[in-house]
From TrEMBL:
It comes from the Bacteria. This is Protein GrpE. It is found in: Cytoplasm. It comes from Simiduia curdlanivorans. Residues 1-27 are annotated as: Disordered. Homodimer. The keyword Mitochondrion does not apply. Residues 1-10 have a biased composition (Polar residues).
Amino acid sequence: MEQTVTTEQNPPLADEIPAASPDVEVELESTTGPEAEIERLQVELQQAQETALRAAADAQNTRRRAEQDVEKAHKFGQEKIVQDMVVVADNLERALASVDASDAQFATVVEGLQLTLKSLIDGLKRHNVMQLDPKGEPFDPQFHQAMTQVPNPELEPNTVMDVFQKGYTLHGRLVRPAMVVVSKAP
């Protein structure tokens, strides 16, 4: 068989061909006969099957990636509007902090601000936007942005002491980190 393969790949030159004998011709015909053709076709079939399998796997991977992209677009397509709504929540919290709640003339204003803030936060929660208010929790650099560190012997080091601005996540992905003050050892 190997002799046939080398003979087919590198045919001898005309002056290198030995005198032909009837036995040699019969032997060459039998090695290039139907068995060799069957073997060649089986190799081609195997290659075609592997190519088809790879093509099917590529198509399946492409389909799965497209489905994941669509799912992410549905989940995180709201991110820009969420960022805008988070600013509104911050402004409502600042307004509540600046109004004197003990003054009777501002009682209805405070109540209105509280109800508006509550309805905004509840609406965000319905769309899987969660507020991060990490006061008293351990500092987590994935969700918190440390603005400063303050020595505090009453708290363990790397504990959030105060929150300047609350953070928000959308489907577990960070939209805005919480801006915090972190304790450190004295």
